[in-house]
Design brief:
- It contains six helices and four strands; from the N terminus they run βαβαββαααα.
- With about 140 residues, the protein is of the alpha+beta class.
- A four-stranded mixed sheet has the order 2-1-3-4, with helices on both faces.
- It starts with a strand and ends with a helix.
Length: about 140
């Protein structure tokens, strides 16, 4: 099984909730989580040439990169039902989905402020996070 990378804004309440949700639903531990603000996040941004103005959730599945609503819907494809049914959202044109996504993203810090702290992951969950390039190399099989 290939590990999928989820790169998220570590200062965002919504992103943190998204990560917590996936941790609870992903029974196969198929995701590796990386904060945009971490050394590993910066490395991923450079490696995949992610523009600096992108601060949304990214999913890297092999060499494919999904951003914004495409990333969230693609993640749903890999978690258990009934959540897998959310992939039906792909029938909504991406420009409509991303317009809504961008509206929430623009206002998320105003509505929820930046996170000052997050729930500490359990020892098992910590295995699914990469903070440094060394962590990323150890935890993600080479492509």
């Amino acid at each position: 099984m290939q590990v999928k990378l989820i790169v998220f804004d570590g200062e965002c309440h919504i992103c943190d909730s998204f990560v917590q949700f996936i941790l609870n639903k992903d029974k196969e531990n198929q995701f590796l989580f990386i904060s945009l603000q971490s050394e590993a996040g910066e490395f991923i941004r450079r490696k995949y040439r992610v523009p600096d103005d992108i601060d949304s959730v990214l999913l890297i599945d092999g060499e494919k990169i999904f951003i914004k609503s495409d990333a969230a819907l693609q993640v749903a494809k890999y978690i258990s039902s009934p959540w897998r049914m959310l992939t039906a959202g792909k029938f909504i044109p991406y420009f409509i989905r991303d317009t809504l996504y961008d509206f929430v993203a623009r206002n998320r810090h105003k509505w929820f402020e930046k996170k000052q702290s997050c729930r500490l992951p359990t020892a098992q969950e910590r295995k699914q996070f990469a903070e440094t390039i060394e962590d990323l190399e150890k935890k993600k099989p080479s492509e």
